[in-house]
Amino acid sequence: MVEVPPARADLAPRVVRPLDEHAAAVLALAGPLPTVTAPLAQAAGRALAVDVRSGVDLPPWDSSAMDGYAVRAADLRPGAVLDVVDDVPAGDTREVTVPDGAVTRIMTGAPVPSGADAVLPVELTDGGTARVRVDDVVAPGAHVRHRGEDVRAGDVVLRAGDVLGAGAVGLLAATGHAHVAVHARPRVAVLSTGSELVPPGTPLRHGQIHESNGPQLAAAAAAAGAEVVLLAAVRDDVDGVRAALADAAARADVVVTTGGVSVGAYDVVRDALLAGGRAELVHVRMQPGKPQAVAVLPDGTPVLGLPGNPVSCFVSFEVFVRPLLRRMLGASDVHRRRLTASVPDALSSPAGRRQLLRARLDWTGGTPVAVPVGGPGSHLLGALARADALIDVPEDVTHVAAGDAVTVIDLREHDA
Ligand SMILES: Nc1nc2c(c(=O)[nH]1)N[C@H]1C(S)=C(S)[C@@H](COP(=O)(O)OP(=O)(O)OC[C@H]3O[C@@H](n4cnc5c(N)ncnc54)[C@H](O)[C@@H]3O)O[C@H]1N2
Ligand code: MOO
């Protein structure tokens, strides 16, 4: 006969707290990781450890914005014919001077010769190469990008804590930085638990499901800037989970588990965490995501035990794990953007639990409308992929009328 372990009502979550309090407790588990020097090619998605100044003016010299002729605007009259004395393509490193009454050809991105104060686009001429006929005039300064008008040498162009998006990487390159001081990326080990789990690709037997929280969390952690170690799911066995936790901790700065944190007889993450190290079982006043575990293993590695229901796991990552990972990454702003949106239909929400409802933002009317997707059930994976926001209904609100404003957490990724 199989010996059934007792349901652990004695180990049921005892710490009851609101979402913000739990999020603060999680955020306190780790600070920004040490500074490393990264080549620019590996800088995207990481946070700067120091303020960065420009090494050069941008543009570094007066530069042409158009293909045409470098001219003195005062020499231009419709019908005038001027000598073309030189040809200045982009990349020409000579210091060219234009004599009075003459012009040079010039291309976009080439340095404007001294003596010229404007660029006459080729479309306003006959396009001549030895002599050029002026068909129309331009004002002094036209189509010249002046030295330093964008960025001045010595300007602080990015701040410590900025997470580097594509625009920032471009700016760092343009201002002369081949390497940057960034924080190390957090290494996250993801461990799913549950004897019902089989890898995707494996045919399901009765009672089995595909392991989906691990891949989901790995994708979310990578998008948050972490390096991910996705471990094979482990069965509901305390010793097996303890061994897997130790292995995970040896390979990561933080371990994220899913499943096994509730009050069931086989909720072994709870038991494994309580048996080894400092651990806290929490009942967070939220929906979904009520049961949570937080622990610090004997080697000092923090463990976040998320609930197994896929939507609970997704939402728990968003509000607890992602801010911690962003903090470890060194980001000055660890939170998602929040928006105010209206709801198309009335909503109800349980008293005393902060509800985070998956929604899709509809922008067709110009201002955002948060349309709930997938219903409140925390097993409803079908619509998860369509959600790009979470409607955040406070604990004390039980009813939201159609058309009312709500706060939403914007799940779309933004360049920093
Ligand atoms: N008597 C009570 N039962 C439950 C309570 C409670 O307060 N009293 N809380 C419920 C709530 S709320 C949640 S959330 C779940 C969380 O429980 P666990 O974290 O212990 O999760 P499991 O029981 O292991 O799994 C729940 C559900 O999710 C599926 N699952 C788990 N892992 C994965 C995975 N990696 N990929 C896909 N799906 C996964 C699992 O098969 C279960 O269906 O507890 C309630 N029960
Ligand atoms: O809190 Mo559970 O996460 O509602 O399904």
TrEMBL record:
Which Pfam families does the record match to this protein? MoCF_biosynth, MoeA_C, MoeA_N
| Cofactors named for this entry | Mg(2+)
The catalytic activity, as recorded, is:
adenylyl-molybdopterin + molybdate = Mo-molybdopterin + AMP + H(+)
Q: List, for all copies, the residue spans of the domain called MoaB/Mog.
A: 189-327
Q: Which InterPro entries match?
A: MoaB/Mog-like_dom_sf, MoaB/Mog_dom, MoeA-like, MoeA_C_domain_IV, MoeA_C_domain_IV_sf, MoeA_linker/N, MoeA_linker/N_sf
Task: Please provide the record's keywords in A-Z order.
Answer: Magnesium, Metal-binding, Molybdenum, Molybdenum cofactor biosynthesis, Transferase
Pathways involved: Cofactor biosynthesis; molybdopterin biosynthesis
Q: Which GO terms describe its molecular function?
A: molybdopterin molybdotransferase activity
According to the UniProt record, what class of enzyme is this? transferase
Might you give the EC number(s) for this enzyme?
2.10.1.1
Q: What is the role of the protein in this entry?
A: Catalyzes the insertion of molybdate into adenylated molybdopterin with the concomitant release of AMP.
Q: Which family does the record claim for this protein?
A: Belongs to the MoeA family.
Q: What is this protein called?
A: Molybdopterin molybdenumtransferase
Query: What is the originating organism of this protein?
Result: Cellulomonas iranensis
